[in-house]
Every structure is written in C-alpha cells, then in structure tokens.
Recover the amino acids of this structure.
C-alpha cells in the first residue's frame, strides 16, 4: 500500500506539534496527510481529543493511517478502540507514548481520562510503537508493556529523547522510512 492510498491522520500530543516537529513537516510533505486539530492543545480533554479523531476517521474516504506522537498516541489508540468500523483503520504508527504517571509530566497537565479510559486490549490493527530508551515521559519498559497490551510491534529508537524537535528529530527521515516500511507491509 502506498501513502497515496490512505488518509494519513497526524495526531500531535500536548501542546501540538510546532513547525519544526516531524509531524508538521510530514503533514506538508505527504499529500494525503492532515493534522487532526484539537480545540485546546494545552489543556487536553481526553473525550474531546478522541471524538475529534473519530470524526476525522468517519470523514475519511480511504483507509486511515493514524500517526500519533506523545499524548496523541493514547488518544489515537483510544479512538481505534472506540471506532465501530475498525476495518476503516489500516494501521497505527505511534511514537513516544507517554506514561501518564511519569514524574516529568507537569502536575495536572493530563486529563485523568487518558489513563483511566486507555485501551486495555489489542487494538486489532497492524502497527508499531516507536520508543526511546531515554524518554523523560516514559520508561522503555512502559512502551514494551503498551505494545504487548495493544498488540503492536515495538521499535527501539535507542537514546532518542522524546522523539520531537527538541531532541533533534525535526525532519526525522528515519521515522519516515519506518512509516514507508509499514505501508509496504500492508500491501503484502
């Protein structure tokens, strides 16, 4: 499957993705990509975020690829779990999902619903979680447990921080190659 065969929904995390973030760059580079906009990037409401993603899935004419970063990973996984027409979702590409209990997260910055309502079973779609060994927002073991729980592959990004512009992952060509690899696996 090619990127042009899919609607690529880019789902940023807390604060959104600035212009130097790989998600913003990919949204400009990939012709079928669009960012799922949220009403409030700084005070995320779990239900509002998940509903916005589900509306975009419903509005898509083609199969959907969800590309989440950070808190957007949990929102994307929740949207997948709550979407009745799961066959419309081709894949999930989730990068640096945060542990809602991570001490590095600002106190009260995360709606408790992100943790309380997070999926507790396999998502039923192919996909990958890409995690770093030195992410301040999640231990690697958290990503391992999440990948197992959600039935997704796990890719070790090494010491890559939070895999965002601040950690040196502006264009992130390695990530784009991983995404292309996942697309090609879908066509087999």
């Amino acid at each position: 499957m090619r990127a042009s065969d899919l609607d690529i929904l880019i789902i940023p995390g807390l604060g959104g993705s600035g212009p130097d973030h790989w998600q913003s760059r990919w949204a400009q580079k990939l012709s079928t990509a669009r960012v799922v906009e949220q009403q409030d990037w700084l005070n995320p409401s779990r239900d509002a975020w998940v509903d916005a993603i589900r509306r975009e899935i419903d509005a898509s004419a083609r199969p959907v690829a969800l590309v989440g970063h950070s808190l957007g990973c949990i929102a994307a996984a929740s949207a997948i779990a709550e979407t009745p027409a799961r066959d419309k979702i081709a894949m999930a590409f989730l990068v640096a999902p945060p542990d809602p209990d991570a001490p590095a997260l600002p106190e009260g910055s995360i709606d408790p619903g992100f943790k309380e309502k997070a999926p507790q079973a396999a998502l039923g779609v192919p996909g990958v979680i890409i995690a770093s060994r030195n992410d301040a927002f999640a231990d690697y073991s958290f990503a391992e447990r999440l990948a197992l729980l959600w039935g997704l592959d796990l890719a070790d990004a090494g010491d890559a921080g939070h895999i965002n512009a601040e950690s040196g992952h502006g264009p992130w060509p390695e990530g784009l190659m991983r995404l292309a690899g996942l697309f090609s696996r879908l066509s087999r």
User: Anything to note?
Assistant: The beta strands are 7-11, 33-35, 64-69, 89-95, 127-131, 153-156. The longest helix spans residues 46-59. The longest strand covers residues 89-95. The domain at 3-186 is CATH 3.40.50.1820 (Rossmann fold).
